[in-house]
Amino acid sequence: MASAFPIGVAGRAWGERERAQWRATQKNRRSYQADVVSRIEALSDRFERIAYGEITYADEAYTLYALRSRVVRPALPNVLVTGGVHGYETSGVFGALAFLDEVAGEFSDRVNLLAAPCVSPWAYERINRWNYDAIDPNRNFRSDGPREATALIELVRSFAGDYLLHIDLHETTDSDETEFRPALSARDGNAFEPGEIPDGFYVVADTADRQLEFQKAIVAAVEQVTHIAPADAKGEIIGSTVIAHGVIEYPLAELSLCPSITNARFKTTTEVYPDSPRATPEICIRAQVTSVRAALDFALEA
Fold first, then answer.
1. Cβ–Cβ under 8 Å, residues 211 and 266
2. What pLDDT, in 10s, does the model give residues 243-302?
3. Cβ contacts of residue 20 below 8 Å, gap of 6+?
4. Residues near 244 by Cβ (< 8 Å), separated by ≥ 6?
5. Distance CA 174, CA 122 (A)
6. Could you tell me which residue ranges the Peptidase M14 domain spans (predicted)?
7. Which of 6, 132, 239, 280 gives a 20 to 30 Å CA spacing to 191?
8. CA distance 283 to 93
C-alpha cells in the first residue's frame, strides 16, 4: 500500500533519513524577528523582557523571549499566558501580543503576569506544527522534551511556584486535516484516519479538574466575537466528547500538554478556527484577547 504522505513508507515509522527529507520541504515563509521580536521589544517599556532560552537548529539560532510584570508582588496571584506553542497557529502569537498591548495594563495591580507569546519560533517561520526535529512540542512538555518545551518549563518555575491561571492560545486549522495529521500518521507508521475540522471556537478543559464554569465563561465571552464550534454527529469535537457548549476535555498531564506545566487552578487551551468563511485574522485575534480577559475576570472573582 502506498503511503498517503509523500515522505516515508506506509506502516514504517520515520528514521533520520525521512526527517531530513521532511525538513528539506520546510521553507522560511515569515520572520520571527520582524513579526514577533520587534513587537516584544516595543512592549519592553511596560514589561520586563526576558530572554529565557536559545534554540539552535543547523545554522539558525532563535532567542526565546517572554514578558513579565515589571514589579512582582508576592501578595498577588500569578498568571501565565502562552502562545505559538504550535508555530503555525498565528492568532495564538498575535493574540498574546495584542492582550499585552491593549488589555494587560488593566490587571497590573491585580496579578503578576508572565507571557511567552511565541514558544516555537522555528515553526512560526515555517508555518508548521512541529519543530526542526519533527516533534510536536505540545505533546512533550516534560523534562526530556524538546528545548521549546523545557526552556518554557524552566522559565515558568523560575517565575513562581504557584499559579492561579494558565491560558494557552491555539488554533484548529484546515491544514490539521490536509497536512499535519497525515504527516503525523506517516511519521509514526500509522494509517491515516480522516477526521473533521470543527467550524468555530472551542476550549479544552483538564479531565482531572474541569473547572467547567470557568470554561463556560470564556466561551460565553468569545461568543460575542465569533461563533462557537458545534458538536459533530457523534457529539464530539476533534474526537473528544463535548461536555458543555464549546468545551471538550483532555488529560493534560498525561498528554504532556502545555497547560500541565503549572499547578494553576484555572487552566485552559483556546482553539479558534481561522479558515471559517465567518472569520478573519482580526476576528481570531479578538477572540484570543477576549478569552484571556474573560479567563482573568473569572479567576480573580472566583
1. yes
2. 999 999 999 999 999 999 999 999 999 999 999 999 999 999 999 999 999 999 999 999
3. none
4. 212, 215, 216, 219
5. 21
6. 28-302
7. 132
8. 14
- Residue pair 7/22 in contact (Cβ under 8 Å)? The answer is yes
Sequence-separated (6 or more) residues with CB below 8 Å from residue 11: 1, 189, 191
Nearest to 85 by CA among 100, 96, 73, 71: 96
Q: Kindly write down the DSSP assignment for every residue of 239-293, as one continuous string.
A: TEE--BTTEEEE-TTTTT-GGGGS--SEEEEEEE-TTSTT--HHHHHHHHHHHHH
Angle, alpha carbons 37-40-44 (nearest 5°): 135
- Is the pLDDT score of 1 beyond 60? no
pLDDT at 3: 44
pLDDT of 2 strictly over 60: no
Which CA distances in Å does 224 have to 38, 85, 201, 227, 287? 31, 26, 11, 8, 9
> Do 118 and 152 touch, CB atoms closer than 8 A?
no
Q: Which cell is 190 given?
A: 500509522
pLDDT, one tens digit per residue, over 185-201 is 999 999 999 999 999 99
Q: What is the DSSP letter of 20?
A: H
Q: Domain 16-301, what fold?
A: Aminopeptidase (3.40.630)
What is the domain partition of the chain in residue ranges?
16-301
| Contact (Cβ atoms closer than 8 angstroms) between residue 218 and residue 270 | yes
Cα dihedral 90, 91, 96, 102, rounded to 10, equals 130
